[in-house]
TrEMBL record:
Keywords: ATP-binding, Hydrolase, Magnesium, Nucleotide-binding. This is AAA+ ATPase domain-containing protein. It comes from Cajanus cajan. Residues 328-340 have a biased composition (Basic and acidic residues). The keyword Metal-binding does not apply. GO terms for biological process: response to stress. The lineage of its organism: Eukaryota, Viridiplantae, Streptophyta, Embryophyta, Tracheophyta. Belongs to the AAA ATPase family. BCS1 subfamily. Its cofactor is Mg(2+). Residues 314-340, 462-506 are annotated as: Disordered. InterPro entries: AAA+_ATPase, AAA_N_dom, At3g28540-like_C, ATPase_AAA_core, Mitochondrial_chaperone_BCS1, P-loop_NTPase. The keyword Ribonucleoprotein does not apply. One of its GO terms (molecular function) is ATP binding.
Length: 506
């Protein structure tokens, strides 16, 4: 009985294959297309599922589709656990360079808000014999695409919400997995030519995090909340009509951790760092071009801005010089201007930070660092340009405990109270505290390093007391000299009065 059934099935399949071969070979192309269209319409009445394809290339294969790349990244997170056949690809500039994804003609399922969907990776080749050994890409007749299948009753949910979710999640995964980069601006002489660019970069591998940052815990939490609020603020900034950017001013004595703070922010936000060297920028026009070449999700840093260029009150300074000094010879003035290494002005920098050009990209953080607050024009650091001012101060006890955990892996010790007292009486930068805590040999244990720090703090305390005594002595000496000078003036006045009386003029 089963043998007869299989025999009939074999005859039926052979008949179907024969008829299909006759149809493909002898029917004209336009007639085949017409018949296939009618067959498709007929089967659609009985098929409750909808299919959407996402091709790998768009625009006549000139550019790889961003949607295809985002879907591939999204599916790679699920395919390594669900798919039976996988393919491995090496991805540049990624923390996970070996990425596993679905192999061709493989299918996996996904679920969104209780709705089940199917994803399949497909490859279509109309001329498999054609092969070009000199091409780095697949043959032009080979087309890859992802196919999404779902029930037609969920059309609105899938097309309006799910696909958007997949694309956004794919881009977010790609951002999380990529390697951060540290950029610096090239001189304008190298902007043109083959493979030249305005920025050059290296891989950013600084290990600093907010957990290892030597700073008061309350201040760290305040900064973290501000960063999280900014990262989620796309709609808010659009509502208030302001460019999606935020300015941070880091100021404090040398060695207080300003550069470490920048690295911690970059690692927390997962943003690339663009270290802008103002002295290498020729003029304001080049400054704007650099801004245009800076993408979103970036941190633009100008370190030691009080030392980069003379930006200390240029507007007022120019006016005062015009009033007090004689006009310079035009030829001499032009020669002096041409000899300047950079012609970036305060006005140009203000437009770079907060002008109309600052809105040419979103989700940017601009950070200034400097040692002395009073050295910059107030217009440069006002709220709205530098929105948050962060003082990087000398090492306190809370910061010391973080450093002790980082360098010595210790949370408490009998010497901690002594160190706490000394830190309250001295001004020592976190970098100096860290240097004293770092073991210098294999024989240095926790107590040895803490005693070394105590000795350094006591020395700093004595130095501070000595300087204070010298300053007090200088002040008293100055007061005595001033008192003597005043006394001599009074004596001279009395003597002049007596001379006037003796000469009979009184």
């Amino acid at each position: 009985m089963m043998g007869e059934l299989w025999s009939q099935m074999g005859s039926l399949m052979a008949t179907i294959v024969f008829m299909y071969t006759i149809f493909e070979r002898f029917f004209p192309a336009h007639l085949r297309d017409r018949v296939q269209a009618y067959v498709q319409k007929f089967t659609n009445h009985f098929n409750p599922y909808i299919q959407i394809t996402f091709p790998e290339f768009s625009g006549e294969r000139l550019k790889r589709s961003e949607a295809y790349t985002a879907i591939q990244t999204y599916l790679s997170a699920n395919s390594s656990q669900r798919a039976k056949r996988l393919k491995a690809e090496v991805v540049k500039d990624s923390q996970t360079p070996l990425v596993l994804s679905m192999d061709d003609n493989e299918e996996i399922t996904d679920e969104f808000e209780g709705v089940k969907v199917w994803w399949s990776a497909n490859k279509l080749s109309s001329n498999p014999q054609r092969y070009n050994p000199f091409s780095y890409y697949a043959p032009s007749d080979e087309k890859r695409f992802y196919k999404l299948t779902f029930h037609k009753r969920y059309r609105s949910l899938i097309t309006m919400s799910y696909i958007k979710h997949v694309l956004e999640e794919g881009k977010e995964i790609e951002m999380r997995n990529r390697q951060l980069k540290l950029y610096t601006n090239n001189p304008s002489s190298g902007w043109y030519g083959y493979k030249q660019s305005k920025w050059s970069h290296i891989v950013f591998e600084h290990p600093a995090t907010f957990k290892t940052l030597a700073m008061d815990q309350n201040k760290k939490e305040d900064i973290l909340k501000d960063l999280v609020k900014f990262k989620k603020g796309r709609d808010y900034y659009a509502k208030i009509g302001k460019a999606w950017k935020r300015g941070y001013l880091l100021y404090g004595p040398p060695g207080t951790g300003k550069s470490t703070m920048i690295a911690a922010i970059a690692n927390f936000m997962n943003y690339d760092v663009y270290d802008l060297e103002l002295t290498a920028v020729k003029d304001n026009t080049e400054l704007r071009k650099l801004l245009i070449e800076t993408p979103s999700k970036a941190i633009i840093v100008i370190e030691d801005i009080d030392c980069s260029l003379d930006l200390t009150g240029q507007r007022k300074k120019g006016k005062e010089e015009g009033e007090d000094e004689e006009p310079k010879d035009p030829m001499r003035r032009n020669e002096e201007e041409s000899n300047k290494s950079s012609k970036v002005t305060l006005s140009g920098l203000l437009n770079f930070i907060d002008g109309i050009w600052s809105a040419c990209g979103g989700e940017r953080i601009i950070i200034f660092t400097k040692n002395y607050v009073e050295k910059l024009d107030p217009a440069l650091i006002r709220r709205g340009r530098m929105d948050k001012h962060i003082e990087m101060s000398y090492c306190g006890y809370e910061a010391f405990k973080v450093l002790a955990k980082n360098y010595l892996d210790v949370k408490s010790h009998s010497l901690f109270p002594t160190i706490e007292e000394l830190l309250g009486e001295t001004n020592m930068a976190p970098a100096d505290v860290a240097e004293n805590l770092m073991p210098k040999s294999v024989d240095d244990d926790v107590e040895t390093c803490l005693l070394k720090l105590i000795k350094a703090l006591e020395g700093a305390k004595e130095e501070k007391a000595r300087k204070k005594a010298e300053e007090e002595e200088a002040r008293l000496k100055e007061e005595k000299e001033k008192a003597k000078s005043t006394q001599r003036v009074d004596e001279n006045k009395e003597k002049i009065g007596e001379d006037v009386k003796e000469n009979g003029f009184h």
